[in-house]
Design goal:
The complex is a heterodimer. By secondary structure, chain A is mainly beta. Helix content of chain A is 0%, strand content 56%. In chain A, strands 2, 5, 6, 10, 11 and 12 form a six-stranded mixed β-sheet that branches. In chain A, strands 3-9-8-7 form a four-stranded antiparallel β-sheet, with no helix packed on it. Chain A has a two-stranded antiparallel ribbon with strand order 1-4. The N and C termini of chain A lie far apart (41 Å). The model of chain A has no long low-confidence stretch (mean pLDDT 92). Chain B is mainly beta. Classes of the chains: A mainly beta, B mainly beta. Chains A and B meet through strand 5, strand 10 and strand 11 of A and strand 4, strand 5 and strand 9 of B.
Chain lengths: 115, 115
């Protein structure tokens, strides 16, 4: 069964600083990987996804993530954080089984942005 | 862009009552899912549905839960006798299941409050 670990529950960064959110996954084959962002009381917005090909994927809002198979990681990065990036970020892994895909989410990282 | 819709956005019910949460997946999608997020926790898989039957369900999805696709467009989650611990945000998702796209499209969620 697949699983996702987000080791940082809460991260605080200054506006304009760079950001890296960590994600490690466990899955027996090549996974499908996702990062979602959720503002309080809101739904899930897909930031970016990795299915195959180039291991560095670009997403919306200036985010990028790099798939590193050797480290089983899919860390999310942003070179310069804006106050509006404050939210909770979920890494997720999708497994293809029997022709369909179930997504398993990590526990999330809450990002606080200070002026 | 096509999107998954969910109604209602917020449902308040008394313990022991039945609730039906409704979802309209993207029209040409074949696989449908329900997820749950208890306040402050991660998103958890409940059930997947394909070809008019359940493909997989989690331990959370006990006999109190059922899903149905009553017509060609709606996908519903019924909770027969709600408990306080069913209070959560419920997300519907769908996936095309064809071609090379494996992205799950999530709806905006229904917040269920059981009093």
């Amino acid at each position: 069964a697949q699983s996702v670990t987000q080791p940082d529950i809460h991260i605080t960064v200054s506006e304009g600083a760079s950001l890296e959110l960590r994600c490690n996954y466990s899955y027996g084959a090549t996974p499908y990987l996702f990062w979602y962002v959720q503002s309080p009381g809101q739904g899930l917005q897909l930031l970016l996804k990795y299915f195959s090909g180039d291991t560095l994927v670009q997403g919306i809002k200036g985010f990028e993530a790099e798939f590193k198979r050797s480290q089983s990681s899919f860390n999310l990065r942003k070179p310069s954080v804006h106050w509006s990036d404050a939210a909770e970020y979920f890494c997720a892994v999708g497994a293809r089984s029997g022709g369909y895909q179930k997504v398993t989410f990590g526990t999330g990282t809450k990002l606080q942005v200070i002026p | 862009e096509p999107e998954v819709t969910q109604t209602p956005s917020h449902q308040v019910t008394q313990m022991g009552q039945e609730v039906i949460l409704r979802c309209v997946p993207i029209s040409n999608h074949l696989y449908f899912y329900w997820y749950r997020q208890i306040l402050g926790q991660k998103v958890e898989f409940l059930v997947s549905f394909y070809n008019n039957e359940i493909s997989e369900k989690s331990e959370i999805f006990d006999d109190q839960f059922s899903v149905e696709r009553p017509d060609g467009s709606n996908f519903t989650l019924k909770i027969r006798s709600t408990k306080l611990e069913d209070s959560a945000m419920y997300f519907c998702a769908s996936i095309a299941g064809q071609g090379n796209t494996y992205e799950q499209y999530f709806g905006p969620g229904t917040r269920l409050t059981v009093t």
